[in-house]
Write a structure and sequence with these properties.
Shape: globular
Distance between the termini: 14 Å
Order of helices and strands: EHEHEHHEHHEH
Length: 123
């Protein structure tokens, strides 16, 4: 697998359109993980990567982090991107859950996991 680590600040389009896309190919399934916020990454990543699908999941409880559906959605993706936010929330809500093991699964199968700001820090 591969990782995409972005510090805070503006997203770098070519990191997605060239680096991630060249690793996972066009038509990839992408999952964006957050604990709050919107689905603003959906159109952005879909356009840059020519993705088959981009879905944002708000995982703001340990129960959601242990959901069979959330686990399946993450494991089915070729690229998982964790947005910015509060890194302590990510760690407190996701450590030791199906989210954590599903992220490892994506990496182990040759996919890309990445994050920006707090999403990068929690990697």
């Amino acid at each position: 697998g591969a990782v995409l680590l972005m510090g805070g600040g503006a997203d770098v389009d070519t990191s997605f359109s060239q680096n991630v896309k060249s690793h996972v190919g066009s038509g990839a399934d992408v999952v964006v993980l957050r604990t709050s916020g919107t689905d603003a990454y959906n159109d952005y990543l879909s356009n840059l990567m020519a993705a088959d699908s981009v879905n944002t999941m708000i995982i703001d409880t340990v129960s959601k982090a242990n959901s069979d559906y959330v686990e399946w959605a993450i494991k089915s993706a070729e690229f998982v991107f964790v947005s910015g936010g509060d890194q302590s929330e990510y760690l407190n809500l996701w450590a030791g859950t199906k989210v954590q093991s599903a992220l490892q699964h994506v990496f182990d199968k040759g996919g890309v996991i990445g994050g920006t700001s707090a999403g990068m820090a929690m990697m």
